[in-house]
Amino acid sequence: PAGGVSLRLCSTRVTLEGINKPLIERIIRVDHAGEYGANRIYAGQMAVLGRSSVGPIIRQMWNQEKDHLKKFNELMVAYRVRPTVLLPFWNVAGFVLGAGSALLGKKGAMACTVAVEESISDHYNSQIRALMEDPEKYKDLLQVF
Amino acid sequence: MAAAGGLRRAGWRLWRGRAVLRCQLSPPQRALRTSAVLRRVSEEQKEPLASSSQQQFDSHPTDPRPEQEPQGPRPSYTGQGGQESEDYESEEQLQHRILTAALEFVPEHGWTAEAIAEGAKTLGLSVAAAGMFHSDGSELVLHFVSQCNTKLSELLEQEQKQVQLGEAEKKPTEQFLRDAVEARLRMLIPYIEKWPQALSILLLPHNIPASLNLLTSMIDDIWHYAGDQSTDFNWYTRRAVLTGVYNTTELVMMQDSSPDFEDTWRFLENRVADAVNMGNTANQVQSTGEAVVQGLMGAAVTIRNLAGLNQRR
C-alpha cells in the first residue's frame, strides 16, 4: 500500500502540522470526486456494452478504477476531508456519460475513456506540481500519485 | 563620562518614545507597545551602559504601569536580561486572558461589555481594556464556545486513548453520541441563565460565519471520534442530523427546570434513537427500492423472452 498512512479506526489522523490543509483538502476532494465519476462512467458503459466483445476490457478497467476509488476513500478518512456535496450529481452524470458514449458503439466508448483518462492525467500532473513545492511535507501523498 | 553620556541618550530616547506613543495609541495598546518599546530600548542600552544605570532605567517601567504586576508568577523586573521573552505576550493572548477572566462575571452581568470590563479589572488592567472588543459581547460568547469545543475534543481524545489502551469498552454509536452531546451541553450549566442571550448574540449576522464554523467543526469532531468513516453523501446526512439533535436539545435545555436537567437528557436519548433509526430506515428503503427495481427488470426480461425478442444475433 502506498503512502504509509495508518488506518486505525477512530484515530486515522495523519500529522497535520505544517501542511497546507486547504490545499490538501481540495486535492483529495477533487480527486475523490473524479475517481467516483470514473467509476460511474464505466458502470454506465458496462450497462450497455457489458455483454459485447469489449465487455471484459471495460470490466478490467472498471476494476482498476475501483481500486483507485478505494485508495482515495482511505486518504479521505485519514486527512479528515469532507466529500464533495455534488456526489449525487456525479453519480447520475457519470452513468449517463458512460451509457451515452457506449450507445455510440465500441469506438465511442473507447474514445470517451481515452478523453477522460487524458484529462485526469493532466489534472494529476498539475497537482503533483503543486505538491512538489515541498516534497518532504507531502511525501505520503506524492507516493500515492 | 561615557556612561553619563549614554544615560542621557537613553533618557532622551525613552522620553521621545513615550511621547510619540501617547499621541498615537489607545490605552491598552499603548500599555503593550510601550512595554515592548521600553524593553527593546533597554536591550539597546545593555552594551554601552554600566549595570547601575541599567537598574535606574528599570525602575522607570514599573511606576506608570501597574497592570504589569498581575503577570506575577513570571519574573517581570527582577533581571536585566530575561525580561523580553517571558513577559511579552501577543495581543491575542492578552485578549484570551481577559475573556477567560470575564467569564466568571457572566452570570451577574450577562454576555456584555460590562462582564469584559470586570474581567479586565481582575487582571489589573483598566476597564478601558474592554474597548478592545465589540460592545455587544460577541467575542466573549465566541471565545466561550471555542473553549467548550476544545474541552470536548480533549475529552473525546482521552476516551479514545483509553479504548485503544484497552482500559475502556468501545461504546456503541448511539451511546457515544448521547454522551458526547451531554458532556458538551453540561458545560453550559454554569451560564444557563444567560445562555438565551448568548444564543441570540451568536445569531447576529456578523457573527454567523464564526458561530457556524464552530458548530460544524464540533459536530465533525464528535462524528470523527464516533468512528464515522463515510466518504459518500452519508457524510452530510449524518452531520446534518446530529446538528439538528444538538440544536433542539440545547433549546430544550433552556426551558428545562427538572433536577439536573433529567428531562433534557431523556429528550436527547429519544432524539438520538430516532436518528439512528432513521439511518436504518433509509437502508431499508434503499434495499426495498433495489428489490423493486430488480423485480421490474426481471419482469421486463420475461416479457421480452415471451415476445421472442431476446435473441442474440
Molecular structure report:
The complex is a heterodimer of chains A (145) and B (313). By secondary structure, chain A is an all-alpha fold. Chain A has a single domain, classed as Ferritin (Up-down Bundle). Chain A is built from five helices and no strands. In chain A, helix 1 (21-49) packs parallel to helix 3, helix 1 (21-49) runs antiparallel to helix 4 and helix 3 (87-103) packs antiparallel against helix 4. The longest helix of chain A has 29 residues, at 21-49. Mean pLDDT of chain A is 83; it is low at 1-12. Chain B has 13 helices and no strands. In chain B, helix 1 (2-24) packs antiparallel against helix 2. The termini of chain B are far apart. Chain B is mostly helical and 313 residues long. In chain B, 70% of the residues lie in helices and 0% in strands. The model of chain B is unreliable at 19-85 (pLDDT under 50). Chain B is elongated and about 110 Å long. The interface between A and B is medium-sized, with 16 and 15 residues.
List the helices and strands and how they pair.
The complex is a heterodimer of chains A (145) and B (313).
Chain A (H helix, E strand, L loop, with lengths): L20 H29 L5 H24 L8 H17 L2 H26 L7 H6 L1
Chain B lengths: L1 H23 L2 H19 L5 H12 L20 H5 L3 H12 L3 H4 L3 H10 L15 H27 L8 H14 L8 H8 L5 H19 L7 H21 L7 H45 L7
Helix pairs in contact in B: 1-2, 2-3, 5-7, 5-8, 8-11, 9-13, 11-12, 12-13
Pathway (chain A): Cofactor biosynthesis; ubiquinone biosynthesis
InterPro entries (chain A): Ferritin-like_SF (IPR009078), Ubq_synth_Coq7 (IPR011566)
Protein name (chain A): COQ7 protein
Order of helical and strand elements of chain A: HHHHH
Largest sheet of chain A: none
Judging from the principal axes of the Cα atoms, what is the shape of chain A? elongated
CATH first level of chain A: Mainly Alpha
Q: What is the rounded distance between the termini of chain B?
A: 114 Å
Beta-strand proportion of chain A: under 5%
Q: How many distinct domains of chain A?
A: 1
Q: Decide which structural class fits the backbone of chain B.
A: mainly alpha
Q: Mean pLDDT of chain B, nearest integer?
A: 78
Give helix % range of chain B.
55-70%
Helical fraction of chain A equals over 70%
The number of helical segments of chain B is: 13
β-strand percent of chain B reads under 5%
Choose one word for the global shape of chain B.
elongated
Radius of gyration of chain B: 31 Å
Radius of gyration of chain A: 17 Å
Write down how many β-strands of chain A occur, each being a DSSP E stretch of 2 or more residues: 0
| Number of H- or I-type helical stretches of chain A | 5
Question: Biggest interface between protein chains, with counts per chain?
Answer: A-B, 16 and 15 residues
Structure class of chain A:
mainly alpha
